[in-house]
């Protein structure tokens, strides 16, 4: 499943 | 947080500190592309606008503030500081960086994870960051004398994204298969652009 990448990176 | 990502963030932070040191210590920005610095400021503003809405961690928020303020400070110095602005070689820094902004924006409208304001701004910032170094690389190739600090600045900037690629590989194997194709492709392009610089940097 193509989950959206978490935006926890800088 | 994994070691690759932390190393990447520290290398990125270090590159900004090296540039700030160069400008502050020598009161000169010769050899530095103001256009690249303006692009980086746009990258950080577009990517970190969730600074006030989503709290991820103290580290994440502090680093976002540091990157936004340091890039703004460098652009301010190169535009307004009476001594520094005189050393900016305007006629050398000729890359039409508006083209890069427009291209990244169009790409973000077409290729994004969700057609929302936040996601389009995020994709725009990722695409723009991949090419933001171009004016600086062109300036380096034009100028014979690459002073050490500017060379180190570009080197650390290239190394940081290489660490991030290792971070994505690590996360791919440990956290499941998120779709990171935007980051992957842009990160590879970004690191690839530095390849020839690294080649000459180590040969010199």
TrEMBL record, chain B:
Its main location: endoplasmic reticulum. Keywords: Endoplasmic reticulum, ER-Golgi transport, Membrane, Protein transport, Receptor, Signal, Transmembrane, Transmembrane helix, Transport. PANTHER family: ER LUMEN PROTEIN RETAINING RECEPTOR (PTHR10585). This is ER lumen protein-retaining receptor. It is a multi-pass membrane protein. InterPro entries: ER_ret_rcpt. The keyword Signal applies. It comes from Leersia perrieri. The keyword Signal applies. One of its GO terms (biological process) is protein transport. One of its GO terms (molecular function) is ER retention sequence binding. It is found in: Endoplasmic reticulum membrane. Belongs to the ERD2 family. Residues 1-25 form the signal peptide. GO terms for cellular component: endoplasmic reticulum membrane. It comes from the Eukaryota. PROSITE patterns: ER_LUMEN_RECEPTOR_1 (PS00951), ER_LUMEN_RECEPTOR_2 (PS00952). The chain crosses the membrane at residues 58-77, 98-116, 122-140, 152-170, 182-202.
């Amino acid at each position: 499943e193509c989950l959206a990448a978490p935006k926890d990176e800088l | 947080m994994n070691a690759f990502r932390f190393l990447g963030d520290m290398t990125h932070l270090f590159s900004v500190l090296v540039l700030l040191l160069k400008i502050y210590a020598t009161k000169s920005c010769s050899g530095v592309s103001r256009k690249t610095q303006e692009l980086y400021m746009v990258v950080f503003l577009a990517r970190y606008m969730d600074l006030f809405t989503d709290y991820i961690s103290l580290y994440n928020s502090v680093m976002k503030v540091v990157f936004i303020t340091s890039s703004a400070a460098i652009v301010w110095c190169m535009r307004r500081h009476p001594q520094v602005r005189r050393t900016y070689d305007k006629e050398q820094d000729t890359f039409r960086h508006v083209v890069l902004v427009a291209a990244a924006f169009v790409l973000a409208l077409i290729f994004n994870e969700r057609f929302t304001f936040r996601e389009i701004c995020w994709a725009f910032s990722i695409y723009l960051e991949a090419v933001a170094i171009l004016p600086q690389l062109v300036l380096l190739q034009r100028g014979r004398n690459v002073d050490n600090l500017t060379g180190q600045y570009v080197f650390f900037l290239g190394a940081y994204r290489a660490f991030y690629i290792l971070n994505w590989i690590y996360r791919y194997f440990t956290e499941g298969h998120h779709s990171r194709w935007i980051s992957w492709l842009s990160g590879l392009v970004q690191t690839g652009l530095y390849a020839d610089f690294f080649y000459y940097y180590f040969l010199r």
